[in-house]
Amino acid sequence: MATDAITSGVGGPSAESVFGPPRRRIGEKLIAVALFCAAATSVVITIGIVVSLTGETLTFFADQAVSVSGFLTGGQWTPLFSDPQFGIRPLVQGTLIITGIALIVAIPLGIGTAAFLSEYASPRVRKAVKPTLELLAGVPTVVFGYFALTFFTPTVLNSILGLDVSVFNGLAGGIIVGVLIVPTIASVAEDAMSAVPQSLREGAYGLGASRRQVTVRVVVPAALSGITAGIVLGASRAVGETMVVLIAAGQLPTTSLDPRNPMETMTAFIGATGKGDVPTGSTGYKAIFAVGFALFLITLILNTISIRFVRRYRQVYE
Predict the structure, then answer these.
(1) DSSP states of 10-69 as a string?
(2) pTM, 2 dp
(3) What is the three-class DSSP state of 86?
(4) What architecture (CATH level 2) is domain 77-312?
(5) Residue pLDDT, tens place only, 109-136
(6) Is the pLDDT confidence value at 16 over 70?
(7) Please, are residues 220 and 227 in contact by the beta-carbon 8 Å criterion?
(8) pLDDT at residue 22, as a whole number
(9) Alpha-carbon distances of 235 from 99, 101, 181, 205, 241, rounded to whole Å
(10) Domain spans of the chain?
């Protein structure tokens, strides 16, 4: 009855008064179509990346000099030598070590910065600090790489701390990558903390809690899913970082666990080898795609685990 009244305009509001003029409805449909095309484009691009990587990776493993077991478990990675070895373990190990160091640096700094901006900073300080923090994310990564190579390693690690590290080393690469992803973690975590209802804070203050107790025991647990999402986003950023590790950590694939030594990550190999010096169609060229496919799988697994964790501990407030 109500639908008929709206449609006919008898005994109720007209369709134009409910849904807006025809021009407005057409505009909303165009916006919906544009947003759908944007989402579909992202899906199509992702599928294209997977298809291109998969095809070249299968061609790589079809080579007689390559075995799947040797690729996954081998400890030597020399794809461009006369006697090539295709054990990806040194690249994966270097990637995980540098990412781990980066997270050790970035997680406390990022969450601490987010807690300060959300719970301690005045509006005036917050307006000054947050844009500056986000500006740090816009600095070209090559600048961070040369900063690590020319200043951080010789001055901070060797001269001040006396760690006796190599010119190229995984420690400097990991620390600088950690500094690089601090804005990512801090920004996402701060948004999650700011979204916690004020009533939770007021209830805790009413029970006599201090600001530190409210931050640690109320705000952080309530924003845990958002904080986790920020950490995972930062980890994905660290895993995919290229220029910093290429310049600071070096290009020496090794199974050593000592971060003071040179290391090579998966992205560093892709960046260094894909510059055009390797003949197209060679086994070394195809190895770039195999490493890229492995890197894609690692990132996919990392994001899948994070999504499950976020959904499990997600808090919904009304």
Answers:
(1) SSS--HHHHH--HHHHHHHHHHHHHHHHHHHHHHHHHHHHHHHHHHHHHHHHTSTT--HH
(2) 0.83
(3) strand
(4) Orthogonal Bundle (1.10)
(5) 999 999 999 888 888 888 888 888 888 8
(6) no
(7) yes
(8) 66
(9) 7, 11, 8, 34, 10
(10) 18-62, 77-312
